[in-house]
Amino acid sequence: MRAMKISPRFRGPWTLLKKEMLRFWRVGFQTVAAPVITALLYLLIFSHVLTGHVQVYPAVPYTAFLIPGLIMMSVLQNAFANSSSSLIQSKVMGNLIFVLLTPLTHFQFFFAFLCAAIIRGLVVGLSIYLVAMWFVDLHVTHPWMIIAFALLGSALLGTFGIIAGIWADRFDQMAVFQNFIIMPLSFLSGVFYSIHSLPPFWQKVSQLNPFFYMIDGFRYGFFGQGDISPWISLSIVGSSFLVLALITLKMLKSGYKLRA
Amino acid sequence: MNPAIKINGIHKHFGGLHALKGIDLTIEQGEFFALLGPNGAGKSTLISILAGLIKPSAGDISVMGFDVVNQYQQARQLLGIVPQELVFDPFFNVREMLRFQAGYFGHGPENDAWVDEILEGLGLADKEHTNMRKLSGGMKRRALIAQALAHKPPVIVLDEPTAGVDVELRQMLWEFIKKLNRDGHTIILTTHYLEEAEALCSRVGMMKQGEIVALDSMANLLNKFASKKLCLTLGDVTLPATIQAMLRSQEKGVFTFTLNDMAQIELVLSALRTANIKVMDMQLNEADLEDVFLSLVGQQ
């Protein structure tokens, strides 16, 4: 394979990005295949149990309704897992020092970890979509909405993963993020239902969940209908990403928990 | 020409602990410098500040004129640091790690010839495609050193690079490091093997409790602080009072005297002749760095 020509100026961040991508690709069975199989199991079980009993949108079978939610949930969870697990492993094993000793800036560090997280999220999401096409003929109404939500959603969770990776000192602290924040928020975001089927109080609670906007906006790209305007969702997701990105850059610049 | 390393009034506080108490040190380009001191003296803290891993409480450090805080990109480009801990990335093999490390510093495939030279020089050539986690401890140590050299830095800091390393590797490593020094690289070494520092380094800085207590050329330090030792086998005798003060130790009829200069040999021997004490055996030992170390930092 011929080496890609890259300016020496960009070679540092590109190398870190390449290393981060190779890291998850080397264990692809765990990082790509496993989430695809998990999503398919959800699809098989929920569609088998609920098809014929539940119809969320007119003329949209429940299995078809379910697939975009499952794709987006997997995109978000894997984007978070990529940056957070890479950082906590490097910190615990001590090899993060190899990156900290380099002239990489805090922005370049952020860029590399963010892009790797987005790429893993998208690879997992695309794999689920391709496999799910065997089960349901899924039409795409607004492809740019799908791309925009997939990119912004994985960027938001990839950034949150960087924050978690920097903050956590041990694997059990990371498990707190995974089990008490990411899992509940993704399961209570409308992946398996429309929030209009909930009592008014829980509808209001759901609207405080940022995952709801990412799932709903992504699903809008397929069916052209959702629980809320996709533009509102897009602006909430976009502004959340900007806020988290600024916090992360500030943490990296100050060396919080990375440099004593 | 800017010095390789210039340290100005570095202080570091960790809560109530004053770990570095105003360190001033200049290391010129091309030097082979030893930074010595007992555990807890502050050597690793000083190196971590140089590497940008720890922020100083006060003072500044520059690498070939570039401040390690305000011009960290230029400073780190010139610096290769071998960390003390045996850390590695279990996802990659040796060559991949070296390529990544060089890549972080902006080097691409044009650097492969240098990577080959490092692999050869450190005896890693036949392990280049071996995953890092499958290497033995000694091989991991070599890979760690290779990673610090991957971007061909002009200033190389080796923080106890031979800890837990066998004699053969130590010899190979020092041959390679000496060659780098001859090629113009500045080498800064911390080690607990004082004979290593004595054999390799031209200048020494000794630290104790966060301060530099000695800073001089190896020859001057040996002359200033280390005395020669005269060991005489005399049997069960009582020494004349005139030479009692020079006696350092006595064990099984062997008397060891500390000499500040060679003229004192005659003083001891003539006192023994006058007292009719027969010398059965005589040995004169040269001073070494361990004597200097013990006299400067040994007494806690």
Order of helices and strands of chain A: HHHHHHHHHH
**What is the straight-line distance between the termini of chain A?**
41 Å
Oligomer description: heterodimer
Task: Note the total helix count of chain A.
Answer: 10
Largest sheet of chain B: 6 strands, mixed
DSSP strand tally of chain B: 14
Rg result of chain A: 19 Å
Provide structural commentary.
The complex is a heterodimer of chains A (260) and B (300). Chain A has 260 residues and is an all-alpha fold. Chain A has one domain. In chain A, α1 crosses α5, α3 packs across α9 and α9 crosses α10. The model of chain A has no long low-confidence stretch (mean pLDDT 90). Chain B is α/β, with parallel strands linked by helices and 300 residues long. Chain B has a domain of 59 residues. In chain B, strands 6-7-8-3-9-10 form a six-stranded mixed beta sheet, sandwiched between helices. A four-stranded antiparallel beta sheet of chain B has the order 2-1-4-5. A four-stranded antiparallel beta sheet of chain B has the order 12-13-11-14, with helices on one face. In chain B, α3 runs parallel beside α5. The interface between A and B is medium-sized, with 31 and 34 residues.
